[in-house]
Write a structure and sequence with these properties.
With 197 residues, this protein is α+β, with helices and mostly antiparallel strands. It has a single domain, classed as Aminopeptidase (3-Layer(aba) Sandwich), CATH 3.40.630. Helix content is 26%, strand content 36%. It contains 6 helices and 8 strands. The chain has an 8-stranded mixed sheet with strand order 1-2-3-4-5-6-8-7, with helices on both faces. Strand 5, helix 5 (131-145) and strand 6 (150-156) form a beta-alpha-beta unit. The model has no long low-confidence stretch (mean pLDDT 92). InterPro entries: Acyl_CoA_acyltransferase, GNAT_dom. Residues 43-197 form the N-acetyltransferase domain.
Length: 197
């Protein structure tokens, strides 16, 4: 697959926080074909980050929330059997990953030919810059290329930033699964959303 590069330019006003006249960042999405130790190390860092855990995986209770596990190259290779994974690079630094699977068992609506998507912006340098938006746009293009017409996702009800992003991108709520994940001493629901592409 040919690498995809996106150049983003921000105005001076948009970059007031960066104290810069102009800033250009290079955003690259690369399909993961063969896992490496470097990639596994980055994924393990993100998947075990206490700030990210509540956002990226469901936890039934406090014990699960506090649990830490590490992937191996073999684990990631097995994951590639049913996940299409794209690594996100910002100015050549690995900052996150996006992925989709086709027709997984956990779909809310069992519509054949549905892509279930996931996104993790693991490095803080990649947040608040519109990268999540661009990453999902890229993933939607890949899904369309595969001939799939429907996308479904789940977002925990306390993750207002992600929920708002998905709404802006045209995703519509189709249901909720109550008491789905544990965070801040209580159980929260999972909002299921869909979009036809």
């Amino acid at each position: 697959m040919k690498d995809k590069y996106i150049m983003l330019k921000y105005s001076k006003k948009e970059l007031a926080k960066l104290n810069s006249e102009e800033y250009t960042m290079t955003l690259q999405f690369m399909k993961l074909i063969k896992p490496t130790e470097t990639i596994v190390k980055a994924l393990n860092k993100w998947e075990n980050d206490p700030a990210l855990i509540p956002l990226i995986r469901p936890n039934k209770n406090k014990l699960e929330l506090e649990c830490r596990e590490n992937l191996t190259i073999d684990d990631l290779t097995r994951r590639l059997e049913n996940h299409h994974i794209y690594l996100i690079y910002l100015d050549e630094q690995l900052i996150g990953e996006i992925n989709y699977m086709v027709d997984p068992n956990h779909l809310y609506k069992k519509v054949p030919g549905t892509a279930w998507i996931g996104i993790t912006i693991g490095e803080s340098v990649g947040r608040g810059k519109g990268i999540g938006y661009k990453a999902i746009q890229f993933l939607e293009e890949q899904i369309k290329t595969q001939g799939l017409k429907r996308i479904e996702l789940g977002v925990f009800e306390f993750n207002n930033q992600a929920h708002s992003l998905y709404q802006r991108m045209g995703y519509k709520e189709i249901g909720r699964i109550e008491n789905f994940t544990y965070w801040k001493d209580k159980l929260w629901g999972d909002i299921r959303m869909e979009k036809y592409v």
